[in-house]
Specification:
0% of the residues are buried. Helix content is 53%, strand content 0%. It is elongated and about 100 Å long. It has 119 residues and is mainly alpha-helical.
């Protein structure tokens, strides 16, 4: 059986072999490993960023919900149209309409009077 094994020759004509122990082959292998690590860490960073954004959005939703329960934030009115889309509203009325719109959508909170009892 040993007689059937061919003798070792460099038949690849300079191509890197799996058992190539030259410095150039080692350097190429290490660069490939570093590049793979960079790609993996980049994907992990992106995934963690998405998780952080999702967590913060959930916190904001929970905070707004708690504020509604406590009466600090008004409930949103989904049917109110945006006054900026109506070109026929005069400038003085537009400012008041924008204030009502922002209050109804929860974009702006009403003034909090601490001397009044809680709702």
């Amino acid at each position: 059986m040993e007689a059937q094994i061919p003798p070792y020759t460099d038949s690849n004509n300079g191509e890197h072999r799996a058992d190539d122990r030259s410095f150039a082959a080692f350097k190429k292998k290490m660069e490939a490993a570093i590049e793979a690590t960079k790609q993996r860490s980049k994907h992990q960073r992106d995934r963690k960023k998405k998780e952080r954004i999702g967590t913060k959005q959930a916190w904001c939703e929970q905070l707004k919900r708690a504020q509604c329960y406590l009466g600090v934030r008004p409930r949103t009115v989904p049917d109110m149209p945006n006054p900026m889309e109506d070109p026929n509203i005069p400038a003085r009325e537009l400012e008041r309409a924008m204030k009502r719109y922002q209050l109804s959508k929860g974009l702006e909170l009403p003034d909090l009077n601490v001397s009044e009892p809680a709702p």
